[in-house]
Amino acid sequence: MEFLRLQLADAQAWCAGRSPWPRLVVLGLLVWLMVRQMGDGFYATPLSGINLGIHEAGHLLFRFAGDFVMTAAGTATQVAAPLVAGYVLRRQGDWFGVAFALFWCGVSLGEMSVYAGDAVAQALPLVSVGGGEVHHDWAWMLGELNLLDHTGAISGLMATGAVGLQALGFGFGAWLVWCQFTTPSSP
Q1: Which CA distances in Å does 109 have to 17, 54, 92, 147?
Q2: Quick one: CA dihedral 116, 151, 79, 166, positive or negative?
Q3: Contact criterion met (CB below 8 Å) for 126 and 172
Q4: What pLDDT sits at residue 36?
Q5: What's the DSSP call for residue 127?
Q6: The whole model's pTM is what?
Q7: What are the backbone dihedrals phi and psi of residue 5, each rounded to the nearest 5 degrees, phi first?
Q8: In 3-state terms, what secondary structure has residue 4?
Q9: Residue 150 gets which letter from DSSP?
Q10: From CA 49, how far away is CA 134, in angstroms rounded?
C-alpha cells in the first residue's frame, strides 16, 4: 500500500503546472473509443492497426519456440506491448502516458476477446505475415487445450478485463486531469 501511495503522490506532484486542456481532449477521445468498442466488438479503433502489427510481430519473434508458444505469442505480445510502453513512460515520468497505456492495453485485450470468441465460428478475416498456411490462433490453441467448448467464457473474461483496464486507464487519466486543475503551479 505504501508503494501505491508514493506513486500516487508522485503522480499528483507531476500534475503541478501542467495544462489539463490537451489531456482533457484525449480523455474525451478515450471515452468515445471505449463506448464504440463496448457497443461493437468489431469496431476498429485507431489503435487496431498498431495492435495487429504487434500481434504479428509476436508470432515472428517467437517462431523458434514451437507452434504453441509461437501462436500464443501473438496475443501475449499484443497485450504486453502497451504494458511495456506504460513502464517506459513511467520511468520517463509521464503519468498521463501511463494512463493511456493502461487504456491501450484494455483496447488490445478487447480486440483479443473478439478474436478468441470467434474460435468456433472462425468468421473473422485472418492475416498472415510471411506467407504459409493461415490458421485461427484461438481456434488452434483452444483446440489443443480441449477448451473450445469454453470459448464464450474465455472471451467473456477477456472482454470484462478489457473494460476494467479501459476504465482504470480512463479513471487514472481523469484523476490526473482533475489534479492538474486543482494543484497549484510549483514556484
Answers
A1: 34, 13, 25, 19
A2: positive
A3: no
A4: 87
A5: -
A6: 0.93
A7: -60, -45
A8: helix
A9: G
A10: 19
Q: What is the Cα–Cα distance from 59 to 33, expressed in whole angstroms?
A: 27
Nearest to 117 by CA among 147, 85, 80: 147
- 3-class DSSP state for residue 145? coil
Burial group, residue 99, by CB count within 10 angstroms (0-12, 13-18, 19+): buried
DSSP label at residue 65? G
d(CA 145, CA 19): 50
List own/partner pairs for 39-42 with CB under 8 A and 24 or more apart. 41/110, 41/113, 41/114, 41/117, 41/159, 42/114
Do the Cβ atoms of 169 and 102 come closer than 8 Å? yes
Compute how many other C-beta atoms are within 10 angstroms of the C-beta atom of residue 52.
16
Handedness of CA 51, 156, 33, 119 (dihedral sign): positive
The domains of the chain are located at: 26-34+81-179
Q: pLDDT, tens digit, for every residue of 87-125?
A: 999 999 999 999 999 999 999 999 999 999 999 999 999
Running DSSP on this structure, what letter comes out for residue 175? H
**Helix 67-91 vs helix 95-117: angle between axes, to the nearest 10 degrees?**
160
